[in-house]
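Predict the 3D structure for this chain.
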Amino acid sequence: MTQLRRSLGVFDAVVVGLGSMVGAGIFVALGPAARAAGSWLLPALGIAAIVAYCNAMASARLAALYPASGGTYVYGRERLGPFWGYLAGWAFVVGKTASCAAMALTVGAYLWPGQAHAVAVAAVVVLTAVNYAGVQKSALLTRVVVALVLAVLALAVVASFASGSGDLGRLALGTDVSADGVLQAAGLLFFAFAGYARIATLGEEVRDPARTIPRAIPLALGIALAVYAAVALCVLTVLGPRALAVSPAPLADAARAADAGWLVPVITAGAAVAALGSLLSLILGVSRTTLAMARDGHLPTGLAAVHPRFQVPHRAELAVGAVVAVVAATADVRAAIGFSSFGVLAYYGIANASAWTLGRSHRPLAALGLAGCAVLAFSLPLTSVLAGAGVLAAGAVAYAVTRGRPVRPRP
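Done. Predicted structure below.
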């Protein structure tokens, strides 16, 4: 069976993770989280970061042992059994395909609101072509995207703080928020950090994975946490929790409140670029998990092909790109993000359960991560929980119908 090319070092792996974490969510996720948590937004961010850290450590340890494409699909299969690996892969592929379409539509909404669907499809086609040409080209484009987004965020934060419009008194914790609201906000903010999974799903394309992946995942997570904390402090002190809760574009509104209206077009462009970066990394991750599941016969085995020249899973990438393009062209996927969120937490729950089997020294963090995933998943809105549970149940039924008999394709 043809293997993928190992060409990514620590820096590239960190950048790929950041491309997913420091994406469009930073421009839009803080508002919904503030609606749930109010002035307790920063503690909610801290809870999300703790759960993400536990998941990151579990993923890093497992990826060092199993440096193959697929991430938790591979870990669950090897540590817990074929069904759990399949369920993790199913949750990831279905949930993240919806997220891909959402990111594509975000690009369209920012660049050309009147033709958002057409722009979304064009974005999917272009980025699928970039991925087809090789992971190194994808990593190079991701470097550019991450650099631009970080520059825009830094400019927005510095301009807002320098204006003197911030008020530290707005960080005071109120008493009108429930524990459920804080946990729901943490569940929404968790997905700001979920991009480190992209590093693990690219395990077969990383040089010296036993050394690279355990270093890259916590590095990417730490940088993303610092960025999110800085941006959250900025918008909270400038807008306050109430104004933030009703803001569809918190950074742009913070710029206006700080008399820096000239920054609004820059922030808008940064949001579009960030969405492109997230979409690029998402397509990479979904196609690699599709490759792994196809190798085991859980998806059509033709998708397991690796391009002889570019050494990428070209059929899986084309299939994922085609599905995402169809969804982005025909549907409003905002409602689908709920089950995507639930599915990702289920995915990481299986990762933590897999890490539990590595031995006693790994169990405290694995147990905390598993409990955190469960609490955050069931703290999401009821419609999200029901939709996510329904998707997982459909996957389990499909597995039962096929009797769970994976068949590896011949080399």
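Residues 68 and 178 are 42 Å apart (CA to CA).
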